[in-house]
Design brief:
Helix 11 runs antiparallel to helix 12 (330-345), helix 11 (311-324) packs parallel to helix 15 (450-487) and helix 15 (450-487) packs parallel to helix 16 (554-572). The protein is elongated, with a radius of gyration of 34 Å. A six-stranded antiparallel sheet has the order 3-2-1-6-5-4. The chain has a five-stranded antiparallel sheet with strand order 8-7-11-10-9. Strands 13-12-16-15-14 form a five-stranded antiparallel sheet, sandwiched between helices. The protein contains 19 helices and 26 strands. Strand 7 and strand 8 (213-216) form a beta hairpin. The protein is an alpha+beta fold and 727 residues long. The longest helix has 38 residues, at 450-487. The model is unreliable at 1-22, 182-188, 295-309 and 526-540 (pLDDT under 50).
Length: 727
Amino acid sequence: MVPVSDRTASPSGPPEAGSEGAHPLLSLALAGMMDDVGAHAGAVYLLSPEDAVLEMAVMAGLPRAFAAPWERVALAAPVPVADAVRERRLVWVAGEEDMARRYPRIAVVLPYPFTIAALPVIRADTVYGAVFATWPGSHPPELSDAEHAALVAACDRLALRLERAAEAGRPVLPEADFLGPSAMAGTTGAAEAAQLAARIPDGLCALDVNGRVTYANPAAAELLGRPARELLGGKPWNTLPWLNDPVYEDRYRAALISQHPASFVALRPPQDWLTFRLYPSRSGLSVVISPARGAGRDKPAAEPGRHPAGLVAISHLLNLASALTEAVSVTDVIDLVADEIMPAVGSRTLAVLVPEAGRLRLLGHRGYPDPSAAEHYDGIPLSAPRPSAQALATGVPSFFETREELETIYPARVATPDGMSAWAFLPLIASGRPVGTCVLGYTEPHRFPADERAVLTSLGGLVAQALERARLYDAKHRLAHGLQSALLPHSLPRLPGLEVAARYLPGTQGMDIGGDFYDLIRTGQDTDEDQAAAAAPAGVQAAAVIGDVQGHNVTAAGLMGQIRTAVRAYTAVGRQPGTVMASTNLLLIGLDVDLLASCAYLHLDLPRHRALVARAGHPQPLLRVPGGTVHVLDIPGGPLLGVDPAAVYPTSAVPLSPGSVLVLYTDGLIEAPGVDLDRALAQVADRLESSGDRPLEELADRLIEETAAGSPDRGDDIALLLLRPHR
């Protein structure tokens, strides 16, 4: 966890780095922007180009602890400021529902009513960083034109100042956060106000934006059981053990972020229930404390010696946990930890190790300037006196704040080859058993306070669970691909006078396995004209088939293999296309698997420049004739296979002149949520028509790639078979 500052600054705070006596550039720009649009909080991020990370340089209106999970944000992260930089535009989030829909991770950590705008800070083609501003949930759901213009103008002014600072060689460094004046400091009549508050029987406290007590009247001191001098300058949940519970701190955070009043009831041991009512403003909160009257007394008192996890630590873990739920494969887990978790915890390098055959194996790594530097972890015996192996063997994390610490505890260890100066070795334990070690490296000596160690240790558990799920998924994925590969033809036969190309693309949802299939079968038949009525026509050299079994699982894939085998068998004995379909239909019904299938089957009669086609509920083929015109073939057909044992599948003759392209496909090529089928089919036909006479391999790639790009969340597989006869 990045260390959190409680610093409070005024606009006349620290000078701009590299400029004697100058005003703070960032905090003044931020305060001016917030005043222009009436925002109650905001922050400026500076871009670290070498790390592709946005680092918070100054915050205003709220404690930096509230944004602890996002103090350092990778450009790839799903966070408004990162989106604003990547997309070079203003990002507006209109409230709780909009946040939950677009940025669920943030909604989990900050489930409060507020709106936020994020903008990039850009000058010409140079990105300097980003800003965000927030408003209470009472803000209208739309950003007004005036607010939009003011935000853009403020970012333009800031970008210009940053450009000038860069040209002058003055590095702009992070500044003290601007949190506004304390609640009662320097106001006219403060003494009179204090006297008035002293006479009120209810307890009155003033908290600054960081939650520190700046004023407490005598009644508050009496109700809280502490002298006012012991309360001033501290946070109530730190000063009073019975308020040391994230639930109470959360109410303070909710009031400050939403700018709406909040309240809670707490038990002051042994039996005094108190009601706390919080009234927020941009400069802090006013708290009214009074004896509770019967309501909300089911909150247990803090147990003696119990030290609940801080709200910042909980926020970090919520953010990281919600991020890890999105990881599917092992690569996803490592990429996510590298892109989002490493910036959040401030580490520079990552290595994930797993046990295999008595040794540690390097599963993945990120951040090493020389990738080979991570390979020294690979092959370490599990019993070796090395911190990576010991973390796995003992289940106890190790933290080394300096190189000297590491070499003192492990004197036999060879010189550190990764160039790091501090390390965290986290055991990855899932379901009570060790599954690996996560090694985080830091370029500079790094302190690991107790709360940060707790977060990193908990992070190890989250990564372990995600890694275990991902390795199981990868194993199933390999099994699925192996099964799919075994059931589909490894290659198609080369036939004189016929150019062929085929593609199979699994859906992006599920196990990447399904029931789509294709095949091209050399028939070897050579019957004469007299036999044409009873058998296959003369000159048939091959048969082609494409089909789609309902479902996207192992059952569908297994059934697809049976159908493909049956079609090959019926083809081998010389049955006509309609008979092949009818026989396959009866086979499917006899298997009693409650699955249906569509199919298109054809005999190629190359000498006669035609194809004999039978269709069972399958999409109509496309035919591109020489010259470029594309036709959707209106071929009569029968029902899906597996529906009616008496179904008839008529056979139709289709002209197939040399140079024409016959396109057989499954419905995944044209079906997508919210897309009209006729329109999708017309788009495929347009691509086919404009393809020219390019090789079929290139044409197949184009059809597949454009369909995949237009529908990244495909729920269905795609099978494609292209045929082009030559003279």
